[in-house]
Amino acid sequence: MSNPQTEVTLRVTSRSLAGGWLVGELEGGRYTWTFRWQFRAGGRLEVQPSLGRALIKEPLQRFLEKYDYNLEIGEHYAFTVRTRI
């Protein structure tokens, strides 16, 4: 039997490399969130709404820490979360 997992899609809606932040949207399972990633402020991540946030925040932060400078506005990206959302 395979472990549960969920494919999450991410879209960057705005960013400022000079300001050190990204804003975007996430969809996974039946949930939708917005996020703000401040990579120059010690990697501060805000995710809204709170419903399901505990399941997505840590995997999202790992994804953003790895790819933040490569993410383009309007593009769609995907990553897998090792849980069923």
Subunit arrangement of the protein: single chain
**Number of DSSP strand runs:** 5
Tell me the radius of gyration.
13 Å
Q: Count of helical segments?
A: 1
From the helix content, strand content and strand pairing, which structural class follows?
alpha+beta
Q: How much is the average pLDDT? A: 93
Helix % is 10-25%
Give the low-pLDDT segments. Answer: none
Q: The biggest beta sheet, please?
A: 5 strands, antiparallel
Q: List SSEs in N-to-C order.
A: EEEEHE
Number of domains: 1
Shape: globular
Distance between the termini: 18 Å
Strand order of the largest sheet: 4-3-2-1-5
Percent of residues in β-strands: 35-45%
Describe, in short, the structure shown.
The protein is an alpha+beta fold. It has one helix spanning 53-67, and strands at residues 6-16, 21-28, 31-38, 44-48, 76-81.
What does this protein structure show overall?
18% of the residues lie in helices and 45% in strands. The chain contains 1 helix and 5 strands; from the N terminus they run ββββαβ. The chain has a 5-stranded antiparallel β-sheet. The longest helix is centred in the C-terminal third of the chain and has 15 residues, at 53-67. The model has no long low-confidence stretch (mean pLDDT 93).
